[in-house]
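ingest -> validate -> predict -> emit
validate: passed (alphabet ok, no gaps, 408 aa)
predict: started
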Amino acid sequence: MANDFLKIFSDGWEKFKSAVPSYDSPHYNKQVEAVLRCGDPIFGFSQYLCLNCGKDSRIVAHSCKSKFCLRCGRVDGENFAQSIAAKLYEDVDYRHVVLTIPSQFRTNFCKHRFTGDLYSAFISMGWDFVKSFMKEVAGVVLECGCIVVLHTVGRKSDYKPHLHIMLMSGGISPEGQWISLKRFDFSILNRTWKKTLLAGMRNWDELGEFESVFSESESRYKGFYAHIDVNPAPKKRRNLIRYLSKYLCRPQISLKRLLQYSSKKDEVVYKYNSHSSGKNEIERTNIINFIGRMVQQILPPRFKRIRYYGLQSPSNRSRLTAKVCEAVGRLVLLPEIERRSAVPTRSCYKDLIELWWGEDPFRCKECGHQMDLARIWKFGKGWIFNIFDLLFGHDIGPPGNLPDLCYD
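emit:
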């Protein structure tokens, strides 16, 4: 099933654009074309050679780097989880919060998916909720912090905008003391989120697009779902990264969920874990509908789906770190703050292969030495790097396992 996702888009993308012309734009075409070309060496690759014995080599096809790509999305998810883990304070507990919207709001959200205005306002509402919630639980205004992540995909891979929040389980009082999150009535969650969301939407909705659903939404809680994990997030770095990857970095669909694809029957079959039953259920749909469910998860150009607020703000990180550590009673020297902020948060190809499969992809199978980058080839440009040209003025190195391509 590894190629079914690509086959579906290869077979149905042009038909989908004819059926839904609003997606026939440079932005969406670029995303889909990048995915279809991803991992194919004909569009670019790097070659690694063992310069010790010259008997082993490895071709690494260039990736598209698109978050929409299931291959690159997994890599982006790992890097994203590491990036967030590096920004969390070691001595502070964090709670995972999920905020959803009523189903009647989704149609209007979907109408504005091509621009980032409503999405940005929605994320800001998450921060407004955090401030109101912390104040009501603590009984005093706290200086708190959180990381808000926008998700637009539901368990069924359908369009369900919602927010995931990594919330500091406490805050700093006006007196400079750290106040931890106490036990509270869980009805506060839904009540506060409903009030915050409706107020935020009324403030954003200058044209009155949502007016027809406001009156219905105000009379009931249904749809204003707010959930907070009872237990804090793990503190060990590896466990924390695994936790963040599971809940905050989930792609629109995984390859293992795709069960069957038939272009003749015009059918795509995939499974999903139902929230209501708690079991895996089967979804059958046609190609056009499936592609629509996938591409509506693509965010507008240059949109930032991750926002940092309050004590988690990236601005003046050293000052905020010192302030938090002082409040929780931990002495932290400036060099340690700088070291923590300098932790690498991105994994390269070698790191990920070692993480996923437990092997070094660049260790020579013949002599055990590390292979070196020897050549880089790009589509339309030819060879853009050749270590032998740099060292000797011409290519005298072994060819290795080069693809059968016309390079120039």
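Confidence is low (pLDDT under 50) at residues 331-343.
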